[in-house]
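S.,

Sequence below, as promised.
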Amino acid sequence: MTTQDPVIAQPAPPKGVGESASATDFDVPQRLRGQSDIIITEKVDKWFGDFQALDDVSLRVKEHEIVVILGPSGSGKSTYIRCLNRLEEHDAGRIVIDGIEMNEDVRALQAIRSEVGMVFQQFNLFPHLSVLSNITLGPQKVRHMPKLEAEDLAMQLLERVGIPEQADKFPSQLSGGQQQRVAIARALAMQPKIMLFDEPTSALDPEMIKEVLDVMRELAESGMTMLVVTHEMGFAREVADRLVFFDEGKLVEQGTPEHFFTNPVEERTKLFLSQIL
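The prediction came back faster than expected:
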């Protein structure tokens, strides 16, 4: 394990993510022009034994961009975002988060994780802690925030996600939608620059999905950089700057919602959309 300082990467000039016509340069929306690349992944591979989960994946995400990642089960989309904070370790290629290259340096990893919040399909709240304590634990332990300051921040975030009255309850006393909103507040309490969402509504009953998506819409409007793995097509159409389609570990196609839903290039993308729309 190295003890050197985190490597501050020098981003390469922008380029396409692959050789196919559908993976050429993304037409960046006006609001993102001039923004720097906050996430850079180049030729990333990931293997689980003999199974290749990611195959030569290259993608750049600009600061404040909202990217929705789509694909069938087992396509590599969740593995990809888990590699962005090293919940899964990539086997080849290069990952740079906010100018810091991910490597074996523990300090580099800590720096990256301090910038990246993640919300999972399962809420992963501590069942023995109150809602307030679930949210304040990270800021106190990791950022060494005084307890009263952490509690004040937690209450602000509970207001933001619409459930301040639940602060003293335990996770088991909340609905699924409320638990997921607590999970979002907990991630935001670390004051990240980037939020990753791994199918955040897939474990929810249909009537609870809207309340979580509304919180995510508000986050998007606030300027948070977001990567969202989801099958919620309405959310993708409305909120995303870019849609990215994965299949069999490869990045198959990317584009604006208008391109993706009305004029996809790849046959595999067309088949996927025909099955879900």
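Residues 1-24 have pLDDT under 50 and may be disordered.

Coffee later?
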